[in-house]
Amino acid sequence: MKRIDAIIRPNCLEAVKDGLVSIGVEGMTVAEVRGFGRQKGHTEVFRGTEYSVDFLPKIMVTVLAADDRVASILEAIAQGARTGKMGDGKIFVTPIDEVVRIRNGEHGDAAI
Amino acid sequence: MTEKVVRRRELRIVRVASLLIALFIVGICGSAQTGFAQSPKPDPAGIATGDRTSVTDAAGNPFVVAEPTDKTAPDYAAAKQSYDDYVAQAAKEPLATKLADGVGHLRIGTNFAWTLNTGYLVLFMQCGFALLTCGLVRKKNAAHLMMLNFAAYVFAFLAYYAVGYAFQFGAMAVNAAPANIGGTPTLNHFLIGSGSWGWLGGKGFFLAGPAYDAGSNVLTLFEVVFMETAGYIIVGAICERITFWAFLLCELFIGAFLYPVFGCWVWGGGWMSQLGSSWHLGHGYVDFAGSTVVHAVGGFCAMALAVILGPRLGKYGKDGKPRAFPAHNIVYVVTGTFILLFGWMGFNPGSTLGATDLRISVVAVNTNLAAVAGSAVAMLLWYALFGKPDITMACNGMLAGLVAITAPCAFVSPTSAVIIGVLAGALVCGGVLFFERVAKIDDPCGAISVHGLCGWLGAVSLGIFADGTYGSGWNGVGTASYLGHAGQGVTGLLHGDSRQFLVQLGGATLCAVWAFGATFVVFSVVNKIKPIRVTAEAEERGLDVPEFGMVAYPEDALVTVDY
Description:
heterodimer; A: Alpha-Beta Plaits; four-stranded antiparallel sheet; 36% strand; B: mainly alpha; Ammonium transporter fold; two-stranded antiparallel ribbon; two-stranded antiparallel sheet; 18 helices
């Protein structure tokens, strides 16, 4: 089992969600996050004084997947989130030990 | 609960109770004034205010001809003749004079309604100021900001009720009787000074006795909301770092002393308003609706407090360069500014104290024109300087235009109003940059630039642009003719009265010195006794929780709630 965390542009969320749903992903968790990568922040002026916006708003989408489905999910996310410009985001894949469905106590792949 | 906590709480209760008792006793003393014989008699029921003496034609000429008293006057014979004619005519037509009593009462009633309703508009400005200042600060101080705005209204009002009103208007009838609302004849005594040199009013403490009068209470309602405006202007410059107790002290100081004293000099028939008759300086110091009396007093008081408090933590880096603390809610800022514009439609036109003064339409148009001109300049200037127009500066520009037109609004043409707005819009931009970068006085909402500098500019611009079409007989000057013309009103430099310009320049500058100086002295002493600034820990955390134990927004609430 794998946990897939994708950090994407906020305006790409709709496309990513639709892509994932279309390949049969049944659930996901979304969080509003902030950060920067190679694109860095930018400076703005407030009442004549410059300030830098270092941390840009992003969305983190978390999906759990059985090992054999990981490749297609990564493909779907990348397709929905890619603009080709700096700041498109990253996807992290990490192994997980256990998943439990709280409602009925199901374990493992059945609980995804 | 530990014993110590209980004892501390008991002590606090005792302290609050003794304060309330003291207030109660003072109140009793105040209302005891009612016992003395009053001359003339106050009219609390409003059934004797407004009779045939209040009836005038459109130009303000009275229906009732007064009996001339000065037998040595050159026009005595003519005046006596017209008085005798009136008496003879009145004796022949008793029904007409009776009808005139009704007309006079109706006229005063119309003006009561106008003045009270415009006063309610000014009261609504409180809401605009609260939104504007709250939106401009950081989220962690939002609840503190709202409480400051709220408490300002409460405590300054009580101070003004107790002594402020009497200090400001206690001698109104001596030199500046407001004929539009019945003349408030009972307010006729200076506590300090007399005649043309009044320094402090002396009747109407606790709104008792002479001030327990229908006409006087119209003035009270209208003027208390003006005082409140000065009271919450200061919030914009001192927020995010002042303790609540010190702020309450500021409000009591403004409501009881700082504002009423200068207000007495200019609006209460005091010495500055009489400089026209005493020293032949134009029409005396003229400030129609309070560019200086209200705004510059608030602005320069705020400046003194901001200097004493020092800048917010982290505002200036180690290199001395300012850092931006962006506004947390632009929607509040813009909404608040529009509410202020709306309220200003009461502030300026209402200052005629009467709907029967038809100049109100010109006043309303001028006020709007200066507002949009100021905003346009601030927007475009920022566009040119920094590449993007700053929304908060566009709002400040609108307020700058409004503040500046407040003094001259009744005396200038629409085009002059636009020019005054343009000047104010440019001045506020320069002021904000100057205080932020050069003077390093931290003013989160631009209160010093908007209200202080542009208030000063407003009073001075009256001395430049006043065109003489309105204000004939203002402050008792030039009732028959002025500058050789019958009906010539308040006139500025460009229209031939340089002395009016001089008195405006001097008076506006005196206002700045008074408000800054008095505040600086008093609160430097207070600050020595007990620091008026919050602790560094509280400031870093945001003042909402350290000062009030709660935050502004539910998503930041301290406790978990059930959905």
